[in-house]
Amino acid sequence: MSDVPSVLSPASECVGEDEAVTARVRGEPLTLTPKDLYIPPDALEVFLETFEGPLDLLLYLIRRQNLDVLDIPIAEITRQYMKYIELMQELRLELAAEYLVMAAVLAEIKSRMLLPRAAEVEDEEDPRAALVRRLQEYERFKQAAEDLDDLARLERDIFMAAMEPPPMHHEKPLPDVGLDQLLRAFREVLGRADMFSHHQIQREPLSVRERMSRVLASLGERGHVEFCALFTVEEGRRGVVVTFLAILELIKGHLVEWVQSEVYAPIYLRPAGPHPGWDDAGDTQPNT
Amino acid sequence: MTPERLQRILEGALMAAQRPLSVEELERLFEGDASRPERASIREALREIAESCQDRGYHLKEVGSGYRFQVDEELAPWVSRLWEEKPPRYSRALLETLALIAYRQPITRAEIEEVRGVAVSSHIIRTLTEREWIRVVGHKELPGRPALFGTTRGFLDYFNLKSLDELPTLAELRDLDQPARE
Amino acid sequence: MTPERLQRILEGALMAAQRPLSVEELERLFEGDASRPERASIREALREIAESCQDRGYHLKEVGSGYRFQVDEELAPWVSRLWEEKPPRYSRALLETLALIAYRQPITRAEIEEVRGVAVSSHIIRTLTEREWIRVVGHKELPGRPALFGTTRGFLDYFNLKSLDELPTLAELRDLDQPARE
């Protein structure tokens, strides 16, 4: 490392003896291969493409010459860096703007180092310090990436041990509904109905509605039912009244109709509408 | 290769494969190795493996396309809980439809739609019918004879009601302050 | 439930799950059972299971999202022959980005770019997100509210880690004040 120019001898950095000739880059790309690159010329393109960016390239240049990052010979590194950039241009590799930015950074550091240092500003930071920090930081993560790649990982080194589950039958669970949810839904829908129409929703005894369903259902099953059969004595007076109201509601809504063949004959209830086999005038006894 | 080592390799491969492996496929695992086990040794190793699982929670099973490990059926009650689905939730549209049928039965679809202001999907009617909460109780004497829906005994049972009377009245509903917490 | 039975059930579930299971998930296997094992018994059973696999071709491993069985690493040369396709390889750019997110999380894209000295391609962020190794964990209070990235449990699972603590130690940043050459 003794040939590395020291920080305080900027003059010696202007020309690097060993690389002077190859610094001319406007000719054949192949002749431009730095002699210490040790890679076949046809692999150069691939080689240059492997750099992850300007920091990576700088690190490579430093490591190749076994230089200490902390003591970068800026002029030397800058010259080599520029050479690679020009190589990339010659090879028409897509040159990221970051490389050019870094070239400018290097040139700036170099120019600052060329300026004579006034003794009184000795605590002024070495112009390379910021670059060195970035290089060190980048190198840590370059290493971390390699370490990560070396970790045992699924698909490559680790295979999950698994096996066929036992035969199972799945029952799809049905949603649960709470009564409060149902009430809330009803309240909401009524609230909306109030807003959209002037529809007056009056109070109705639910037992009548329920009984309406039950009467309709029994008619559905049997086609027609004798009026008296719809009442159950065991339900008491209240039950009879509810059933009667339900029947009246059904008749009012033209959901059912009643038929009686003659006075005092049994009254039948049947679903409203045409009925094959029935006399639509409703004055004959239903066929039994 | 010792028989034990052969067993370990086969066992590892069978567990990693996530599909049954035939003896031929197991043979191919050793392709390129200096010493390749005979097919007979592989079969013998499979027998040994099968035996060694005797008192574990799984077994080696030969199926159409080869061998695979399978978890014992008697563990199914626990293992199946891994795939247990959370019950889905019913939509607001469904709950409103159900509420209208409960409170205003017998009711036609058109009547439900009139109150709700939107169409009632057949899917909702089908779901409620399959759940056996509603049923067709009759038909209204109108063109097309639309079905009249009512609630069932199953509906009362589910909501723990003796009769529809136990549903809060409309007045009580309106008095309900803020909806009860979920 | 005897300890042996508990072990068999846990083993069966872990083998059938095809993904790591946390102790909480294992606990839930017994939901609804008359006697439910304590968490401590489950942990004890897991220890026993781990021990019982000692001389088999697989072992119990704790990774980010729980416990899983995995084939012994030394069997990988044979087991990997089951697949024709080579395992995916990841570019340096992707690995460096992932390393920065793993060690420096939460981190913005701009911060990654600052360390790497080059733009981070959207393609890399997309790949890492699709693999479910990273996710947006928040937004930095800066103009544009840039996303902050962090790693996921899936990242730990994939790289065979129980927690981020198990990542290889990051090389020390050498102090600039140190003598340049030792």
TrEMBL record, chain A:
Keywords: Cell cycle, Cell division, Chromosome partition, Cytoplasm. The keyword Cell cycle applies. Its main location: cytoplasm. GO terms for biological process: cell division; chromosome segregation; DNA replication. GO terms for cellular component: cytoplasm. It is found in: Cytoplasm. HAMAP family: ScpA. Component of a cohesin-like complex composed of ScpA, ScpB and the Smc homodimer, in which ScpA and ScpB bind to the head domain of Smc. The presence of the three proteins is required for the association of the complex with DNA. Participates in chromosomal partition during cell division. May act via the formation of a condensin-like complex containing Smc and ScpB that pull DNA away from mid-cell into both cell halves. Belongs to the ScpA family. PANTHER family: SEGREGATION AND CONDENSATION PROTEIN A. This is Segregation and condensation protein A. It comes from Ectothiorhodospira haloalkaliphila. The gene is scpA.
Automatic annotation (TrEMBL), chains B, C:
Pfam families: SMC_ScpB. This is Segregation and condensation protein B. It comes from Ectothiorhodospira haloalkaliphila. InterPro entries: ScpB_csome_segregation (IPR005234), WH-like_DNA-bd_sf (IPR036388), WH_DNA-bd_sf (IPR036390). The keyword Cell cycle applies. Keywords: Cell cycle, Cell division, Chromosome partition, Cytoplasm. PANTHER family: SEGREGATION AND CONDENSATION PROTEIN B (PTHR34298). GO terms for biological process: cell division; chromosome separation.
